[in-house]
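Service request form, structural biology core

Requester: graduate student, group of Dr. S.
Request type: structure prediction, single chain
Budget code: on file
Notes: please return the result as structure tokens.

Sequence provided:
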Amino acid sequence: MSKRRTNEKRREEKRRVNYALISVYFLAFIVLSVNSLNSFLYFTNTWGDTMATWVLSKSMFFDHQILYKDIFDQRGIVLYVIYGIGAILSSVIATKTSLIGLFIIEYLALVVHLIFAKKIIECFDIKHKYLALVAAVFIFTDIYQGGSPEELLSPLITILLYLMLRYIVKGYQIKGVDYFIQGLFLGLAFWTKFSFIGFWLGFFLYIGVNLSINRKFRELFSAIITSLLGFLTVSIPALFYFIRNSSLSNLFYNYWTLNTQYYRPKASKINTIMNISNNFMTDWFTNPYEFLFFVFIIIGIITLARKYNVSVLLASLFIGVSGVYFGYQATGFGYYYFIFHSFIWLGMVMGLWILEEKYPQMNRHLTSVIGILLVIFSLRATPVTIQSIQQVQDIKAKIIQHNQDSQITLLQYDGLETGFYNQLNVNPNVKYFLQTNIVQEQFPQMPLERLRYMADKKTEFVIYNVKNTALDKFPLLPKSSLTKTISQIYINKYGNSLTATVPQVLVNNYKLIYNNGDYLIYQRK
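Core staff response, request fulfilled:
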């Protein structure tokens, strides 16, 4: 009878745990729905990075345009495959202009975070496990507007972190399948954004040195082979895509040369390496929010170092930082720290562990208050304004009204995609359909080609942003008829008549059909 009661108690506890986990997953869904502009709560995502990748991926998957060869960007093919899967999901579930497919992928990535966060928690003697999971929701839903490569790839960092913690806390013997999986993840990182590979390089470097010191050469050889097989599992299909489409040279130039040489102002290799710490400090120490997260990372390392050898963790983190902040002359973009989310959350868990040791009498009321505060602070959405929605709708209606062809062709002159291609369901018919952050004087081909599209009347419509133009940089480009400018009268959103500077080839070959607000619309003459 006693044994039966014990079994019933265990079954009841298991059911209770499952309900608690379901509640955490549901909470994660709610918070992500608010924070990601890809969710069903919003009209569109206004982040140019996400929308540019979305449009490019649809061009690859639906129009069969070849990455780097037919259509330009400088990020890795794995990111476009992820977005392409999202685009297919959207077309099946809703429409091709809906971002719901990408949101589903975001949520699945978040679930992976939470699954392995729970496994990490179980490596330690932590009583308030579900408070730690709520903290995971708090950290892993800090995603700016949704869809960055840092957000989509960071679950792989959480899995790597779990493997390292099992190794240093539980004395886990790393197996061949672990090396294969991490090699696979290294491949995914390399073909998404190769600045992320430092986390895996640090892990493999430490393991390799450790095995060499202990003269475990057979295991070292096995680890190298299985890791390489994992890396090749991703790399061979990626290379096959470019070889089959005769675009290996495009791959090397767009993905490697542009990112390593032209994406930031030139500097010597020594200065570039020395600037890594400065770039990191500038990014993390000038923002109070990010500085707090940096403090959590330090808390996590110090707490673990009191009991364990954290060398492998430090190697992964240190080389990871070096990879992310290598090559920038001032600072990275604010969302770069997303890739460090797993380490930030680990610091929060270690902080909870310290509190439990010092205050074993912590009751449910206190932990509930902390959990509620974390949920409140988790809701950090960047809303889409009614004004921006109306502007996109007005421009969409104007283009549809004036369009005479069965298929709309469009060039948004400067900056990244801000929703017009997607809302009109237009896949670009020109290679340089967007203007990236690559320094123009180092890569003049992109702005000059975009001006040449206007001279050749490649698209039916041109959308010109009067607030976000690169005309001030034209003197840095080779002088030609393409870089000549002219004044254009327009009416801003407040009803004031103002003057904008526009390319002369635009006025010569296109007529103005809309001049209200931040955008001018031109139609081919």
